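Morning - oxa(dethia)-CoA inputs below, output right after.
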Amino acid sequence: MTPDTSRKLVNPRARHNFQGRTCSITGVGACVPSRILTNQDLEKMVETSDEWILSRTGIRERRLAADGETTSDLAAGAAKRALKQAGVSPEDVDLIIVATITPDMPFPATACLVQRKLGSKKAAAFDLEAACSGFVYGLEIGQQFIMSRTYETVLVIGAEKLSTIVDWKDRNTCVLFGDGAGAAVLQHRPNSHGLLTAVMGANGENADLLYMPGGGSKCPATSDSVAARLHFLRMDGRETFKNAVQAMLTAAQEALARCGLDISQIKCIIPHQANKRIIDAVGTRLGARPEQIFVNLDRYGNTSAASVAIALDEVVATGRIQRGDLVLIVVFGAGLTWGAAVIEW
Ligand code: UT7
């Protein structure tokens, strides 16, 4: 395989730069439902207050999908926008990866339903499940297919309808989550930069910190399991918080080190949008300036796999990053999983 020498590397030691083609993000898009659920609305549903939610999480409101609106609808909406921005026809997509923990159904893959909605007839399609880290996992996997010349165009989507697995009687969790989707088109662009590196990690030892007990092979749906509310997510918030800060910090540092970059060189940091206090703690420990860090969880809450994908679309749409700027995405989620990606935009 002939190395791509056209690219000016940030640091030639960066892992992905030795072999294969470069992988650029040529289009991004997002789709969020129109219905807004505010903290004031939640005050009428559970024993909580706007003051508690805002001060403990930074969230003011979140979006909720309509009853008939599915994860694949949101995913297809985000994908259409990303394809339009990239100037790519749906028929030209080679692979669709949907990162989600709220598929339309246990099977078939939501990616196949998105393929049908887009009309991407030649695309292979599969789901990946890495919870809130799913979009970064998807970028890394998609990038491998571009680098290896297996595919020309890969669509990576993070999409969730978390409102269907949130226990609306549990104030510990129901105030945190929202629905939405974000997408990115991956392609090789000669003389253009792109993903410089992506870090992925996991620790199954802490799988019980954030999980949904029911609905899988361990605990199939029965009337008893439904009555016991086993088909809703559960979280040990405090422990998850601690793990999130450490894992995001380590992943971000590893990604920067691989590229030989200092945090001051990053134009925009896009952290997983779970809790403003987690974002602040990671930012401080990384030595980042507040203006480097992008936050939109006040408007969307935690949308899991969609979180950083929606945020990436927003930083592009608002002109916060320009071509050539360095972007650091850092994520954390159930599994536990984590990841970070450095992109030269
Ligand atoms: O996306 C995957 C990653 N997810 C995360 O990273 C989430 C990580 N965790 C967190 O963001 C935070 O731990 C939470 C926002 C979930 C909770 O914040 P906290 O500061 O860790 O609160 P806590 O769990 O320590 O609870 C403090 C108190 C408790 O009352 P007591 O036991 O001290 O009397 C809770 O019952 O706050 C109470 N509480 C609430 N009060 C009003 C919990 N939820 C609420 C609520 N409204 N919604």
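Note: The first strand starts at residue 24 and ends at 31.

O.
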